[in-house]
Design brief:
By secondary structure, the protein is of the alpha+beta class. 33% of the residues lie in helices and 34% in strands.
Length: 174
């Protein structure tokens, strides 16, 4: 399996819009806690990528990474580089997604390594993230050196709207 990780600019975002939208819809359908509720339409996913993320990329607020297997995009993560003025040393990891069919193959780890390396390159010394408490992703983040800062109960609804879950905030110094 030859996975390639790259930064995606607005042109790549447009070219990979179908793959990005598919990853998002299929991840939410599989239960991912990434801020979306079911049912999530392909059109809503396309709007998120093309408008919300496209605009953030244009403004330099986010850096988007993609994991590619051949021509197909199979995973993505974002580095939120724009933080408040009193936090120029910090950035956030957001919307870590690997297509459900491609999980447990090291793709998430590869995406995270690329994001952390880029964070160092742009002079960041602290990276934060939040994830659903007791999610399988906690193991990945811990293995990459992230430490738990705390947990907030009843933080968000699961994507199916059946129950609320806690979220765990994590950090890593670079």
């Amino acid at each position: 399996m030859d996975i390639r990780i790259a930064e995606l600019d607005n042109e790549a975002l447009v070219n990979d819009l179908d793959d990005l939208s598919g990853i998002l819809v299929d991840s939410v359908t599989a239960g991912a806690a990434i801020g979306f509720m079911l049912p999530l339409s392909k059109e809503e996913a396309r709007r998120f990528w093309s408008q919300d993320i496209g605009n953030a990329l244009s403004r330099g607020e986010r850096i988007l990474f993609g994991a590619r297997l051949g021509p197909r995009l199979v995973g993505t993560v974002q580095l939120v580089a724009a933080c408040p003025r009193n936090q120029p040393h910090r950035c956030e990891i957001a919307k870590m997604m690997v297509h459900p069919e491609m999980r447990r193959r090291g793709i998430g780890r590869m995406l995270m390594h690329a994001a952390l390396e880029r964070a160092r390159d742009i002079g960041k010394t602290l990276v934060t993230l939040d994830t659903r408490s007791r999610d399988v992703a906690l193991g990945l983040y811990s293995s990459l050196g992230f430490e738990i800062a705390g947990e907030i109960p009843d933080y968000a609804w699961d994507s199916d709207g059946q129950a609320m879950h806690a979220t765990t905030y994590m950090f890593r110094r670079l």
